[in-house]
């Protein structure tokens, strides 16, 4: 495993152009940014960090030491070590409404923190705020000065709603429209709960799983007992049972659910120190990950099972290791989401 210097946390490394929902037989294409985009059919990308119980990174693992299960079925995996030059396309999405007015003073150093998070990677960063509706404050730009100018426009808004699911869906559509070769991510700074979204949780969860968009969430005022039960390692019965579990979890803590399902990080804060520490924690995870991938095996019918699939990563040689990885992907059309969940 190489030690990459340009990855935003351990989670912001998923490509938008080689997701599980896309199919292509095109050969590898050379991009002007200096790296080769490998276009494959039905590829699921799984970033994974592996640490001892004491938090020490476990280096130099081989592909044959990993076990990746798709809905409990072991997959044939590949390990990609050439990740040093991957670009980042990021939407920073900040809630401006409701209790956010009490938190804005803590965001003063966000610009320099974003620079630390992105590292030396080619980047395109957009800044947006939201209450009932999302507002683009600064379009995608590689220039830190443009990012700083957009962050300077952040201010609280008088709005009784905080439509987090709607805002994440909007940000995801912005990323999808880029059609670039970068990894796509959303940094969400918000309350834990959604207030007033029109989008259904199932649609947003499925869309993130289809497009390989990762959500990292830094949330304020978390409830003490908002725990994601039934998500890890595929709770629920079958792919749509898992989706039902995810929808129920999103009603309790939308930010944490979206982060967990998309392979992102979830951090909460109540003070300036914990906010700064949370972003510092993200920036410290820019190194030492493994990028695994697999092509889902078809079901007996000859095609992959539609719905939300659970992913589990294990390293049998290190049974006590702590592994952080993506937990799901979505297979099939969004039209396959059951009507009662939409």
What order do the helices and strands come in, and which of them pair?
Blueprint: E1 29-30, E2 36-37, E3 44-51, E4 67-70, E5 73-74, E6 77-80, E7 88-95, H1 110-118, E8 123-130, E9 134-141, H2 144-151, H3 164-178, E10 183-191, H4 201-211, E11 214-220, H5 238-252, H6 254-262, E12 266-269, H7 272-283, E13 290-294, E14 307-314, E15 322-325, E16 328-331
Parallel strand pairs: 7-8, 7-10, 10-11, 11-12
Antiparallel strand pairs: 1-2, 3-13, 3-15, 4-5, 4-14, 6-13, 8-9, 14-16
Helix pairs in contact: 1-7, 3-4, 4-5, 4-6, 5-6
DSSP summary, beta strand count = 16
Query: So, CATH architecture of the largest domain?
Result: 3-Layer(aba) Sandwich
Query: Could you tell me the radius of gyration in angstroms?
Result: 19 Å
Query: Can you give the mean pLDDT?
Result: 74
Task: Walk me through what this model shows.
The chain is an alpha/beta fold and 342 residues long. It has seven helices and 16 strands. The strands form four sheets. The chain has a six-stranded mixed beta sheet, sandwiched between helices. The chain has a four-stranded antiparallel beta sheet with strand order 6-13-3-15, with no helix packed on it. α4 links the parallel β10 (183-191) and β11. The longest helix has 15 residues, at 164-178. Residues 1-41 and 222-237 have low confidence and may be disordered.
Provide a quick synopsis of the model:
23% of the residues lie in helices and 25% in strands. It has helices spanning 110-118, 144-151, 164-178, 201-211, 238-252, 254-262, 272-283; strands spanning 29-30, 36-37, 44-51, 67-70, 73-74, 77-80, 88-95, 123-130, 134-141, 183-191, 214-220, 266-269, 290-294, 307-314, 322-325, 328-331.
